[in-house]
Amino acid sequence: MSAKIIDGPVTLITGGGTGIGAATTRLLLDRGHRVAITGRRKERLEEFAAEVGAGDALLTVPGDATDFESVQAAVQATVAAFGRLTGVVANAGLSTHDDLADGDPDQWRDMLLTNVLGPAVLVKAALPALRETQGRIVLVGSTAGVKNTPGNFYSVTKWAVSALAENARVLVTGSGVGVTLVAPGRVETPFWDSREGGAPGGPIMTPDNVAASIEFALSQPAGIEINSVVIRPTGQVF
Description:
By secondary structure, this protein is α/β, with parallel strands linked by helices. Helices cover 44% and strands 15% of the residues. It has a single domain, classed as Rossmann fold (3-Layer(aba) Sandwich), CATH 3.40.50.720.
């Protein structure tokens, strides 16, 4: 293995096989990263890896983003395969597309664990490796975590992600590790598959639009961090 490969950027992305995660994986591979992706569905990860055709530059690690031992194992597998870890992207997330009056609390539990506990355990699992490389953490939030909508528990979880990003930033200040919250508005992804009628009407972004912001945050020079990026399609109000 050449010194160039050993020293190159290595990024771990949760939920990396679909939507924003898949677009980010493709972009980072194009930019010379080696990338590890996690997801609950092993078959989907394998299908995506075959589609991308990146060979040894892409590592797939099936696992649950809410389970600390699973996430820690993914970090360890990434370092074992690529020699280091320079960035993580907490992308795995979901929405129940309901509200506090009519929603199902059992479904909220899974959403809360995925959207809030998942990023938290990724930060915990990755910090030792990121401190060694003075790497970067990107948490994918939402404009729903910037502006509330009526009774939206998904919004509550994304406000928590916004708080987690600042909390983590203060924790690692002085270590050389950078933390960025990327909060996208409406994006055309499988996120909407569980919503009756699919994505709502109106302006909408592509996953590639959001991936570009994530790559921008990861590619800042040493000593510089972008702390917050809010990105909406032009015309989206909330």
